[in-house]
Amino acid sequence: MSASWHPVANAQPTEWLLSQGALGTPYAVVRRFAFGDPNRPDIWFRVVTWAPRSEGRELIGWCRTLEAATAVAWDHRCAAESWRHHMAKRRSDTATMAAQRPSAAELVRFYRAALASQGARALRPSLSRATMGP
Questions:
Q1: Which member of 13, 73, 101, 124 has the lowest number of beta carbons within 10 Å of its beta carbon?
Q2: Is the pLDDT of residue 10 over 90?
């Protein structure tokens, strides 16, 4: 007689690599953290930029929901691409771009503020459910 329960029932996802499309290069990593009482943990999601090794990743922010975490990761991807286009349009060289590049969290703040000032409709959860890192 076999049991209907399997150890995989205890498995919970703790890390997600976010990429656009099945073959796309990842653009962010979201990791789930549980703090406090194991019976009623306080759940947070840390969002970092993608790099092959942890040392090359940069904090984008901390969020309370997976939805907010994936939204801030996507906004960072869009913000970073927009910033690169802006700098390339100014004919900035690579060293200048690296020296002037804002932090990942600042890029997202600037990007979301620019969208808000243009009257862009919110398509994703707002920052009210997310806490951004330093």
A1: 13
A2: no
